[in-house]
């Protein structure tokens, strides 16, 4: 416990933007075949440093086959609400779940260059206390740390629906399930909320048999992946509305609410529209009658391609789908970044008017067919995937792996881990930084990035920017 | 008479102490005004917080008012109350965790939250030894007056103590909320918030100890 609030806690998104820039990034490394232990890379992001763009410390865990994916902090700016009673927590621990093993690591990064394991929660404990498996997204909420899961109980994770569980934010003891009334929710992926407005939004990927051994083409073509987003009364823990985006909108993944809590809207990325292979972004909002609504506001077209250039999975379609796998919103709620993992493009949309996004910038790198090189001349394997924006909105970082088995289907062979950065122009626009290229250890892939002191998909703010 | 003045000051000072502590809710008033884009919401939120706090004070003080009517047991009651306050202080020292159920209260129900926050942290209990001290002086002054006089007197004091404390809390917390809303900005929140958990627990113990030492 601190005597003052952690200096990285900010009352408003605007104050967070004015805070000092990140000098370090934390990036997850996974061993796709489970032959080596997964790890956490600490990357130097200080342009004045001699080791800029290099991994300055790595921590590898003592188990094999965890498959690191998403992770998060033990505490964020949400601690500044008196309602939570957690004002004096430290932003000190990274909570890293293994989505294949269901094991959870608590990593102490108080001294980032001496990052060490603080606690390990074994899968059996998670199963016993929650009946859930395959933990995924982390957010700091009213009663502690909220963790979404992708699987229910049983060997293949289909015994009961997946959901969210709560973990104590000081002892990291698992408290139990979050839900009191989940309505029709039977799949899970991401979630986020608006704390003062007291609502949460959650999304759906698919059940473990639909993703663990690769995408199941028959399920995708028969629209069996998730396509519904759920609106919850956060503290009452019940679904108030489940909104079907249309069954052709397969895999509604990342939920990105406006950071400024005065705004009651947000975005959700859809991986693929099975009628036309488009990628899509939906804007969701609460209307003047208090009803939840959603509308498709961005579509990204597939690009025709020769079957010979396509992996087996896509040969029959004669086109590369954009595959919108991750989205992220800058802290000023101005730019939405959309990773088109199939095309090999990172799009930047001006979403000042959330109902009418305008493409403001674009970077081409990697891609199933395009295979764009980095400006430094190196090959960028796979496509732009997990994206993270600096608090000030001036730098955008991303990595290139989606999920081990899916990587292999869309991009057969090992294409190497990557992490790059692009600079944002004064009035929008996106340009890759030639001098930022992270070399990862052989045989690893890179996944989510967290920035020192918080980033654009971590902190929940309790007060509006003025 | 000097003791009485000191005790009344203690009522007011503890109110100011509760009021300026962000943990007792003034940031929620700033947030309400900003979220509603209406300055009036700041005052509405302050009123809700004050009401919750006042009810919490009353809920703790009135049972002791009734107990105090057991004239022959007054000394024991004062010792018991002091012991209770000290015990809570010691408990909070050993277990500084904040109660999780407070986080379950929706942000729209500020009065309920304020009531529960005051109860959970023993804000009302802190006033009890002070209040009983004032009652003791009243009784000494009136001698063996009619029971009726004592009852009305102590009940009246309970009302005034709860009101004076809550007004001091609301005015001090409100002043900061208004200052932050109009001039200081929300940066003031993270800059000025100190972890008072330890001091809070120690002040409970202090109030209890002083009360024991000054018993006649």
Fold blueprint:
The complex is a heterodimer of chains A (466) and B (216).
Chain A: H1 13-18, E1 24-30, E2 39-44, E3 55-60, E4 72-73, E5 93-97, E6 104-108, E7 116-121, H2 123-130, E8 133-141, E9 144-151, E10 164-167, E11 174-177, E12 191-194, E13 199-202, H3 217-221, E14 228-233, E15 238-244, E16 249-257, E17 265-273, E18 279-286, E19 292-300, E20 303-304, H4 312-315, E21 319-320, E22 324-329, E23 335-340, E24 345-350, E25 358-364, E26 387-389, E27 395-399, H5 404-410, E28 419-424, E29 430-437, E30 445-451
Antiparallel strand pairs in A: 1-2, 1-30, 2-3, 4-5, 5-6, 6-7, 8-9, 9-10, 10-11, 12-13, 13-14, 14-15, 16-17, 17-18, 18-19, 20-21, 22-23, 23-24, 24-25, 26-27, 27-28, 28-29
Chain B: H1 2-20, H2 26-36, H3 40-68, H4 74-94, H5 110-120, H6 123-142, H7 147-184, H8 187-192, H9 197-213
Helix pairs in contact in B: 1-6, 1-7, 2-3, 2-7, 3-5, 3-6, 3-7, 4-6, 4-9, 6-7, 6-9
Structure description:
The complex is a heterodimer of chains A (466) and B (216). Chain A is 6% helix and 38% strand. Chain A is mainly beta and 466 residues long. Chain A has a single domain, classed as YVTN repeat-like/Quinoprotein amine dehydrogenase (Methylamine Dehydrogenase, Chain H, 7 Propeller), CATH 2.130.10. In chain A, the strands form eight sheets. A four-stranded antiparallel beta sheet of chain A has the order 3-2-1-30, with no helix packed on it. The two termini of chain A are 30 Å apart. With 216 residues, chain B is mainly alpha-helical. The two termini of chain B are 15 Å apart. Chain B has one domain (2-213). Chain B is 80% helix and 0% strand. Chain B is globular. Chains A and B meet through loops of A and helix 2 and helix 8 of B.
